[in-house]
Amino acid sequence: METIDTLIEARWVIPVEPARAALEHHAVAIKAGRIVALLPAAQARLRYSASEHVTLPRHALIPGLVNLHTHAAMTLMRGYADDLPLMNWLNERIWPAEAKHVSADFVRAGTLLAAAEMLKGGVTCANDMYFFPEAAADAFTSLGMRAALGLITIEFPSAYASDPDDYLARGLALRDARRHAPLLSFCMAPHAPYTVADKTFEKVARYAEELGLPLHIHLHETAEEVANGIQAHGVRPIERLARLGILGPQTIAVHGVHLDTADIALLARHGASVAHCPASNLKLASGIAPVAAMLDAGLNLGIGTDGAASNNRLDMFAEMRLAALLVKGASGRADLLPAHAALRAATLNGARALGLERNIGSIEAGKAADLTAVDFGRLEMQPVYDPVSHLVYTADRSDVTDVWVAGLRVVKEQHLQQGDNFELESTAELWQNLLRAGA
Questions:
Q1: pTM (global) more than 0.90
Q2: Contacting residues for 284 by C-beta, under 8 A, at least 6 apart
Q3: By three-state DSSP, how is residue 197 classified?
Q4: Residue range 346-381, pLDDT digits in tens
Q5: Dihedral, 200, 202, 204, 210 alpha carbons, nearest 10
């Protein structure tokens, strides 16, 4: 028998690739953090001798979810500024609070809280954009979570950097120092068309091309952003970005709520991806993204939560369900974004947008063993005709019991294996008191 580290048997294994597969009574064999085989459980027991044998008789085992857009540290501002449109939310509440409070300690504490929430909800990789990304890197890796760190660039000074060149220099130095860290990858992250100048965009585009990095940017989130962009530059923001070399297969356009037919065609022509954040878009009254047109154009659609300050939950199960329902209601086409496609958007499509599809996003031999186990044992989950339907339309994050990242079990029977819940709660309360006092 072949010796391996871990053998996980499950009632169903949903590999995502090939599409629409739902394998009953299968097992995943893991060695040195990677998947070595996916095969029927009976065969696996004969073939492998595992140091750890996990049996999940009522579970669906899926790839770890990929949160394609978040600001993890802003979890410390969950509920701090509710029920406001985006620009009021930013100008009146969020940016003043950040100017007073954001530091490396703030980012480390907020990211720890966010990573714990995401891991317990089955998210194994987050694409993050915020200040002090080195502090975020420490937080993510201390809990054993995978992260794509945005090297944020913005025109105005902050506690993190003094000007665009300083942002770029600090971000690139972090990428150079930690580019071999096994759970980290990096993105260029110019904040948005309304906060980044042409000269800075040109530098960002050059670095993204030279280093082969994804480019993560908020784009066409509100009608006001588009109108102001036309007034300032004479063209829609997306056309401006195309002229500056920002659009390409590496581009992750976040939100895309106010994309018209020509905008979508432009993104498709450049092979860009979209990070769809349906709950945040609704809560900030930004609108409903034209996902039907994006799908028709063949865009790679991933799903993100945005930050907890604008969503209040870093819950990818809720986002999958909402994304699938919204596109049907908005288009009148019930067949759009079916359950299998929604799950793919929350896993393999997100990995593809980040350039990580060869490593994560599906359960295939050779890939990292980033896995999430979802318990179907609740009465409210019965009966089960299609486990993938249940994952999108019935299950929620509280049904996640176990999570592996690179073969390491980081959540076991709903308990984090690294990190102290009491310490996280105490830290959150401390920062809450500081923000409340400074409001």
A1: yes
A2: 84, 85, 86, 89, 222, 310
A3: coil
A4: 999 999 999 999 999 999 999 999 999 999 999 999
A5: -150
